[in-house]
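Please check this today:
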Amino acid sequence: MSDYSIQDAELVVVGGGLAGMIAAVRARELGMQATLATLSEPGHAGNTPKAGGGFAVALGPDDSPELHARDTLAGGLHAGQPPLIQKMAVEAPRAVAMLEKAGVRFVRSPDGSPELLRVPGHSVRRGIRCQGGGAGALMEVLVPLLRKSAIVLERTAVLDILVENRTVCGVLARREGSDELLWLRSPRVILATGGLGAMYPLTTNSPEVRGEGYAMALEAGAELVDMEYMQFTPTSLAYPPALRGVSTGGMLLAEGGRLYNARGERFMHRVDPDRAEASTRDVVARAILREVLEGRGSPAGGVYLDLSDIPEEFLRANAGHFLNLLSSHGIDAGRERLQIAPAAHFTCGGVLIDEHAATCVAGLLAAGEAAGGIHGANRLSSNALTEALVFGLIAAETASGMESRRIGLRPAGIAQRRYIEAQEPDRSPIRDVMLRCAGLEREKESIESGLRFIEEHRQKITTTEDMSTPLLSRMLVTAQAVLEAALLREETRGAHCRLDFPDELPPRSYYSVRIRPGRDGRPSAARHYGDPGENALSSEISS
């Protein structure tokens, strides 16, 4: 193994999106300096810069954290963990108030109160939006705060979470362009690496969101949960080619956007008569897929989105960044229909945490899309930034309460292995397998073929120099975790659609799928019985 240097840190944060940034900023407020490692640079890292800038938070007179929690549990088909859902809903107003105090500007009504928007899946107006839409207003405040608060290591890849006796002792990292390894020695690590969307060929995700954080957590001894629930957004641009994968944002469907097939029919009324386009993402995405597979799709393989009924003033205030992007490619969204199609969007599962953002590995915390258990089988619109914000803050607050530990000079976790990236690995075979075997619709035969591919590919790279590329092997571990979970989930629920098991399990038969470290580093999946259910949420609220 290459030589390594040591840099001590009070807290290591892995990931430069919203969860990571807010954790590092909050840590400084609590008297602790974080060292944040990010693959790119703050303001451009992860999926946050691509987000629509919307938060779901109970602020209206007809709303409450209890109602927000109930909507989230129902939207996730009762597969989420009630303590986590309740924590997010209760803490969201405080967290958003902290953002506003820091200087983040939200769209407001003429009377000065927050302008509350309709958001798909939520029963009342609950969405608030950064001014101008998008994450620009968020980034212009958080990036300078982060640079004042933390030691930022840009273009730095974290290769391993180092653990000794099931206790974290830092991470092993490498700066871009350097062969030297860096041991960031710390008793506290917050994993905020995002999801796995870039493991699919059509995605709204940043190219760096490749799922390796899940594999590192698993190798460190943590558990994963709900990995079968990969959410596809129905509102990804299918045309023009230069903008494929750009998300229009689900909020526009709830505020008057209409979907048409190639015959000019508004097909969502057939699928969900009550909510139509304002239905949840899993329902809309599969409805679009049906239109395409049955020959009623657009030339680009999607359907048409019509925004002409939405006032231009509203569009400019809440989706101005998106309109400007379209305009730069000669498209007037207020006058012409857009071609959209489902794209891999959000990983509902992730590292299993408790309400303090802690994992089963001492000193290891997780937040944002890296964490699982909050969204269940389907994430409601605008809950992603809310979750990242709330649990990023909680992770920092939990870390600040941990006792410091003396760490030795060489933990057992620094393995005798190579970490040299000889060349960028070809990820297209894994992407193709994920789409074919873990896409919008799955069945036993396709899932098992995907697992065979992973095993064959693992055997192949074991005997080649590709094994020195940790990214490829980590992607295989994460892909296997998704497929093993999908194979065990013998029902259709939310983002997980099994053609061979079209019905949803009754509540008393429900189980979550937990992924644990298995033999030779392979993920091991097992059913975990116990229905979270409405009663469990009620007990959380009453306590």
Remarks:
- DSSP finds 14 helices and 20 strands in the chain.
- The longest strand covers residues 338-347.
- The two ends are 51 Å apart (CA to CA).
- Residues 538-543 have pLDDT under 50 and may be disordered.
